[in-house]
Amino acid sequence: MTSHLLALFPVLNSLFNPLIYAVRIRDFRVAFIQLLSRKTIAQAEHLERNISGPKQIRVVTTVGNEVKTELAWKIQCYKEKRH
């Protein structure tokens, strides 16, 4: 019985990974929509925007007149740690 359950884990992993990626990564989601709907990339991106709304960039901080997005802030912090 235990060996059957252990054999089931890789199958479940393979089943859920594409769904997790589709939820978390926009480019993967667009490719997934394109594959399933047999549309062009532009049509799949339009459909993805209609489903999940516009892509939002979260503003983390402002330094003087400069607005930093979350990614830009992480890059700057990483560079400062290296110096």
Short summary of the structure?
This protein is mainly α and 83 residues long. The chain has helices spanning 2-24, 26-37, 41-52, 70-82; strands spanning 59-63, 66-69. The radius of gyration is 19 Å and the shape is flat.
Characterize the structure shown.
- The protein is mainly α.
- It has two domains: 1-52, no CATH class; 56-83, no CATH class.
- 72% of the residues lie in helices and 11% in strands.
- It contains four helices and two strands, in the order H-H-H-E-E-H.
- Strand 1 and strand 2 (66-69) form a beta hairpin.
- The chain is flat, with a radius of gyration of 19 Å.
- The N and C termini lie far apart (55 Å).
Annotation keywords:
2 domains, 83 residues
Overall shape: it is flat
Average pLDDT level: 76
Distance between the termini: 55 Å
What fraction, in percent, of the residue positions are helical? over 70%
How many separate helices? Answer: 4
Name the beta content range.
Answer: 5-15%
Low-confidence stretches: none
Main sheet strand line-up: 1-2
Instruction: Classify the secondary structure makeup into a structural class.
Output: mainly alpha
Record the SSE blueprint.
Blueprint: H1 2-24, H2 26-37, H3 41-52, E1 59-63, E2 66-69, H4 70-82
Antiparallel strand pairs: 1-2
Helix pairs in contact: 1-2, 2-3
